[in-house]
Amino acid sequence: MTQKILFRADASADIGAGHVMRCLTLANTLKANGYRCVFAARFMLESLGRLIEDAGHILVRLDGGSENVTDGEPVLSHAGWLGVAQETDADQCLLLSRSGQWSWIVVDHYAIDFRWEKRLRPFCDRLMVIDDLGDRVHDCDLLLDQNLGTDEQKYAGKVPANCRLLLGPGYALLRPEFAELRHYSLARRRTPQLQQLLITMGGVDRNNVTSDILEALKRSPLSPSCQITVVMSSQSQWLRGVRNLARSMPWPAKVRVDVTDMALLMADSDLAIGAAGGSAWERCCLGLPSLTVILADNQRQSAHALSSRKAVIALDPNGPESLAESLPKALSALIGDGLEAMVERVSAVGIDGLGAVKVASEMAGVPPAR
User: Fold this and answer.
1) CB neighbour class for 326 (10 Å; exposed up to 12, middle 13-18, buried from 19)
2) Hey, what's the signal peptide range on this chain (predicted)?
3) In the chain, what are the domains?
């Protein structure tokens, strides 16, 4: 009998795309191992929905999303992201369980805690949580936190005693092409020169940081021979404006939309200016130096951990300096020997790109809870 796995994750302008993308990476690995994967989502970017279905998974869209969220105590800091009360969401997911027991339920959602998980427990053999925050209690068998600097103390008293913790970027859920291109990417950085600059703010650039970066670059000391590639989503409301801005840049700048070869783009780039979310681990895997822009509070831990190792330069648009001030300074520091030194440090983070395979192996070793 085919084993079934239910993923519960959302993607929107507020939530971003990262939760669904890392779940999709894991689902693709599990599908290759014979599992049938179902995604339950209330909020879903259309481009991501197509990716899920094109990969051969089932996408179920949950109803609602406009009611006042009233879960009672404890009130979660991201409760509004769920769109409904946890009890309502759990009851809707229970309806998906009528066809039989789930081998696993995988939850990647900051608005879900032990209350939702306990309600679904009887309908799954095992339950896994993917988290970054460590700010709430879970009832799970396996917990993954792929952030650098995370230790067991972060989840002390927040998971059952027998919960297995998978901690650190060695478990980062990266698509297989990153591991495949790692050797090529590292080899071409032996004598790094800044000729190809990549700008990517992730699947959702809610605050149009891409435009701020392009404006700041106009005051930066890039070589006249440098070429810029900007990656955008077709659903971005800023796409037209970014295209117009790219045409006004002092260097050749092209805008690529809904790319399917991101790993190769990164491997062929000499420096990236990118969001501090899950794509930071992609850049580390390929040894790609980067200016890492903190777009959300949940990105601070990893960005600061990488910055403390001098593996990235972290930029905070909400910090004391604007991007117009901090970005030109950061680029000036990298020109010359600074780029080569960063290549060595980012490569030393040691992300091999096989995190999804490792997590799938760990899941196979967890016995049923009952």
Assistant:
1) buried
2) none
3) 4-174+353-364 (3.40.50.11190), 176-347 (3.40.50.2000)
Active site annotation includes 19: yes
H or E stretch covering 77: none
Binding-site positions for substrate read 175, 282
Annotated binding residues, written as ranges, equal: 175, 282
Q: Select from 256, 272, 286, 145 the least CA-distant residue to 197.
A: 272
Catalytic residue among 19, 57, 138, 304: 19
CB 297 within 8 A of CB 333: no
Q: Which range has the worst mean pLDDT, 47-61, 206-220, 299-313, 336-350? A: 336-350
The answer to whether 366 touches 165, Cβ cutoff 8 Å, is no
Cα 18 from Cα 190, distance rounded (Å): 31
- What integer pLDDT is reported at residue 192 of this predicted model? 86
